[in-house]
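User: Need the bound-state model for cytidine-5'-monophosphate:
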Amino acid sequence: MTDIKSKKVVLGITGGVAAYKAAELVRRLGDQAIDVHVVMTEAACGFITPATLQALSGHPVYTDMWDARIPNSMAHIELSRDKAVIVIAPATADFMAKLVHGHADDLLSTLCLARDCPLIVAPAMNRQMWENPATQRNVAQLEKDGVTILGPASGDQACGETGNGRMLEAQEIADAVAAFLAPKSLAGVHVLMTAGPTFEPIDAVRGITNRSSGKMGYAIARAAIGAGAKVTLVSGPSSQPIPAGAALTRVESAADMFEAVKKHAKHADIFIGVAAVADYRVETPSEHKIKKTDDSQLTLRLVPNPDILAWVAGQKQPPFTVGFAAESRNLENYADEKRRRKKVNLIVANLAQNAIGADDNEVMLLDDSGTHKLPRAPKETVAKDIVARIATLYRAAKKRR
Ligand code: C5P
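Assistant: Bound-state model below.
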């Protein structure tokens, strides 16, 4: 259902310590079905070998204008012609200055100057180099020229200092590149969604939670952002990296999640309830840690939590509403019953034992037109297919209104 499978990109690596992260970046771009062709500057080869990148990308690595493998000796033109985008990661301060001034004194800079595709740059340098007015002028000029700048992040640097200038992590760059390449089927659409588990307090230190990792929900948030949506993500406790571009509200309990959803629901075009919301909470959590008693019996009284998904779907003018169903058996029947009872437009059904906490997932999508099964795949891929289906159904529903 997605079409980024056909996307080829040039990954340009320049000479900074962060070049070691380029190896990981090739893998993470590969996870997103992006075909990576690597071009390196001479200085980059001092930090990481072309052989490593050739092995990881599965393609020859180019470093030289006069590479005999390009039949017409026009490497600087040929290499970008069938590519969707050139990504420079890491981009040194010097390389950015070259881009600004249109220098063309090696293969990568010449390739950038002669390109007929967009350019994405992920800077990496010492914090003082980054903060220097010359670099800042160059960044501003590149943005004016239509170049997309990713990062940099703030944190520990290879030089031992701390501050702005760290290259974004490989996963963040790969997500941003995938988002850049994805079809914009949800451009201008506001998606409100929940993800992760909830945590229902028992006392000051204990609580009831579940094994949901947030992986599926965060992957859907990334896919929706990639499809051009504005995403508000209400998340229970999760250690997943925050999807770049999402407006994140962190919550713990189902009650907090409900409040956050109520606050944003009016402005949402689509609601996706991915969170594994606890059905029950402790009626009166103890403010202090409960002490063990002599008879060592403890009874907790549980009361039902509000059903967030059913509440959203029950509004007078509800957004296009998508729910998840995790079942351990009778998947299709139980999921369809849930879809009708909660009055949601689409249910994504998965077997709990296959899905919760796993990296892969196998889902079926149930809507008024019937059941569509998707093959087992990494959650990132499944997420893109789910978002593509949501976009199709959302547009069709909007036309009917
Ligand atoms: O009824 P069940 O919990 O199986 O329904 C799952 C779906 O309902 C998921 O989309 C989940 O996010 C949502 N849900 C909710 N609030 C609850 C319970 C479930 O939004 N209290």
